[in-house]
Description:
The chain is built from 14 helices and no strands. The protein has about 300 residues and is mainly alpha-helical.
Amino acid sequence: MPWKKGNRLHVVSEREAPPEIRAIYGEIQQYLGTPFVSQLFQVYASYPRFLAAHWKMLRPVVDSGEFFRLAERLRADAYTRACNYFDIVNFCPQLESYHFSEGAKHELNQVIDLFNYLDPLLLLIAAAQQQAFDGVVGNGRAPQLPSQRSDFETRPVLVDEESAEPDPRRIFDEIKQTSGLPFVTQEIRALARWPDFLRVYWNFLHPLLTSPIYSECSFGIQESAWSLVKELPGSMELPLEHMTSAGMSEDDIASVVRLTQAFNRGLSSALLNISIAKIGMEGGNRVELSPREKQTAFEQESSPNQAA
């Protein structure tokens, strides 16, 4: 169900988190190998009892090599879909026209790599949580492989929606309107540190978001995550009855379920989008014709025999 316009997403920032939440945040960063806590967990922290139960359930799984291998398969799935179904331009020449330094390009690529690493982890977690509401998920076997997390040390600069410059803020509003989600993902907020890149990226991405093939790809990534959850080690379950016995109200439980569904949709699109950004920064996949090839194609299209 899309969020109603005007609804706000409540998050518990790392700075505002009470000690017990901050301790969970610290473990999440350690186990995932990231220098910040993602939006998913900051939203879950609005319901402290739920976050505690959720992380207790997920922690042994996240500490396994199997978890990271499955995330790599999901990452490859998204990258392959982006390559196969979209004609992605090379973003680099456009950035050069904005006089991007090599240092700025390097930092931008680091941010893209960070979220390309993180998004499939989060999508697996959200998919596992959504299924754990209804029953036991996982393969039932103990983890066999040690954790294979990466360690990203540089914390990305996330541009605040309220304090963003007019052009990024306009793009933020267009993204929320197009996605139907009540928040701008952290990927977009991180990329907004470079407004010129965000403009180039969004001008390319925006028309794709309303295309049937984009919807199919995003849904396909979500289905892949849903299927891969069955291969996660261990057994995970967090039924609604457990949350009720933990003292959560029916309204809070309904909100958590709805938020989890929203993050499953949002993260599948975010993973596809960051794959497109990565391909564009790697040179794109659009085949550029040489002048002679363009002339030949023009002559063939203009030939009277072509119409026949």
